[in-house]
Structure formats: structure tokens, C-alpha cells
Automatic annotation (TrEMBL):
The keyword Transferase applies. It catalyses: a 1,2-diacyl-sn-glycero-3-phosphate + CTP + H(+) = a CDP-1,2-diacyl-sn-glycerol + diphosphate. It comes from Ilyomonas limi. This is Phosphatidate cytidylyltransferase. Coiled coil: none annotated.
Length: 285
């Protein structure tokens, strides 16, 4: 593909803005972290419903209350996940989350029953899959942010290790794949190669582990395992979202970032990696 200067400038500018916004949301405080993932949560849901509506046009017929009620129900899970965070106002946030959750668990099915003729169990399954795929993942991200673990005793440590592993893996996989990649990884995403995938994962694990150990004195074994889980699950998450787009016949899930795609394009790896990292943290740490 010929080099296009204007495309390169657009992609570079949007990438810089994306990184600045992400770092600000991640690092300022807990509330900026919650706000960041609240925006990401609703953005992912809008694109998910759009893709499902293309794949199965029956899903476009769901009542408006269900369409937005299921998003709010998922967001309430995120608020509930903050229950162990030692932050001022944490109790209030959690209380709001539980009240919203109870109300919406009652109201959403009730409205669905009223609109039973235009709503099917198949569509309900799509929405429940969205809750599991999007809302539970981001709720577990908030839970990770609420845990004070490892010697650093900082709720940011594990989310940063997780996110850094995903970002570095994506970048290194692209570079390695461009240089030596020959064998396609999957027919779902022909541009990905086995060489790039393996090389990206190994480099991400090494870089994240070295920085975590020497800069923050974190235990090597735990960091290796967390970064390895993130890179493997993240790659599968990327393929999963690519499969959704292929079924829908679209190139990008949305237009969040010119040249880079939408919310699901940007966070597909993190969506699947977060639950698996949380499982390891819950049982091992």
C-alpha cells in the first residue's frame, strides 16, 4: 500500500489525542477513571447494538426502553463494583449502583413482556451477551481499580499492567508482523500473522515485566502471568470483534478515531483480557 501523508497525519494526530485522554482518565484519580470507562462502556454498547442490528435486523426492533435500559443496567454493575474502594464517596456511588440495578432488573423485563410481540428471546440473548461481553468486563476493570494489591499498594497498578500489556502487544505485533510475518494467524483477520502475534506477546511480557520490576519493584512472577494472560486473551478478543465485523460486513465498528475505528475497535482486546486477569488476581492475589 502506498504511503499517504495525509492519512499518516490524521492517524498520528488522533492517536496522540487518544493517548492523552486515556492517560488523563487513568491517572488523575478514581473518579476520572470511572468517567473514562463510563464513556467507553456506553460507546461500546452503541456500536455493539449497531453491529447486531446489521447482523440480525430483528434486533433493530427492540423497544427503546430496552435498548437504553440494558446499557444503564450494565453501567449500574460498574457502580456496584466499586464497593471495596477506599475513596471518599465510594459508599454513595455503590449505593446508587445497587438501587439502579434493582430497579432496572425489574423494569426492563416488565417492558419486554409488554412489548412481547416485537421482542424475542433471541434478542434477549443478544442483550445478555452484550452485558457479559461489555458491562461485566468494565465492571471488573472498576473492581481491579478498587483493589489495593501487590507491594505498590495502589489500585492503579494492575489496570496499568493490563492496559500496558495490551498496548505494547498490539504495537509490537504490528512491527514484528510487518518485518518477518509470513504465516496468517486466522482467516478471520488475514493481516495478522503468527510471527507477529508470538513476537508481540513475548516482547510485551518482557517490556512490561522489566519496567514493573525495576521501576516499581513488583514481583516478577505475578507481572509475567498477568501480562501473559492479557496478551493471549487480548489477541482472542481482537479476533472475536473482527468476526463480529465480518458478519456485519463492515470495516470498523464506529468512527471514534479517524483512521483507527470505533470504541470496540480500540478496546476489543481489553474487553476479553480484563475478566481473565481479574480471575487470576482474585484467586492468586
Amino acid at each position: 500500500m502506498a504511503f499517504n501523508l495525509q492519512t499518516f497525519k490524521t492517524r498520528s494526530l488522533t492517536a496522540v489525542v487518544f493517548v492523552i485522554v486515556m492517560l488523563a482518565g487513568l491517572l488523575i484519580n478514581f473518579y476520572s477513571f470511572l468517567l473514562l470507562f463510563t464513556i467507553i462502556h456506553f460507546g461500546c454498547w452503541i456500536e455493539y447494538q449497531k453491529l447486531l442490528g446489521i447482523i440480525d435486523t430483528d434486533y433493530k426492533k427492540i423497544p427503546l426502553f430496552h435498548k437504553y435500559g440494558i446499557m444503564l443496567l450494565g453501567w449500574s454493575l460498574m457502580l456496584c463494583a466499586n464497593s471495596v474502594a477506599p475513596f471518599a464517596g465510594a459508599v454513595a456511588i455503590t449505593s446508587i449502583g445497587w438501587r439502579m440495578l434493582i430497579i432496572l432488573i425489574i423494569l426492563v423485563p416488565t417492558v419486554d413482556i409488554i412489548h412481547l410481540k416485537s421482542y424475542t428471546f433471541k434478542n434477549l440473548g443478544y442483550s445478555l451477551a452484550g452485558l457479559l461481553y461489555i458491562s461485566v468486563s468494565w465492571a471488573l476493570m472498576i473492581k481491579l481499580r478498587s483493589m489495593y494489591l501487590l507491594p505498590a499498594n495502589n489500585g492503579l497498578v494492575i489496570p496499568l499492567i493490563l492496559i500496558a500489556s495490551i498496548w505494547i502487544n498490539d504495537t509490537m505485533a504490528y512491527i514484528v508482523g510487518s518485518l518477518i510475518g509470513k504465516t496468517p494467524l486466522s482467516s478471520i483477520s488475514p493481516k495478522k500473522t503468527r510471527e507477529g502475534t508470538i513476537g508481540g506477546a513475548l516482547l510485551a511480557i518482557v517490556i512490561v515485566t522489566l519496567i514493573s520490576h525495576f521501576a516499581f519493584h513488583l514481583p516478577v512472577v505475578h507481572v509475567i502471568i498477568i501480562s501473559a494472560i492479557a496478551t493471549v486473551a487480548g489477541t482472542i478478543g481482537d479476533l472475536l470483534e473482527s468476526k463480529l465485523k465480518r458478519l456485519a460486513g463492515v470495516k470498523d465498528s464506529g468512527e471514534l478515531m479517524p483512521g483507527h475505528g470505533g470504541f470496540l475497535d480500540r478496546f476489543d482486546s481489553l474487553l476479553l483480557a480484563t475478566p481473565f486477569v481479574w480471575l487470576y488476581v482474585y484467586f492468586a492475589l
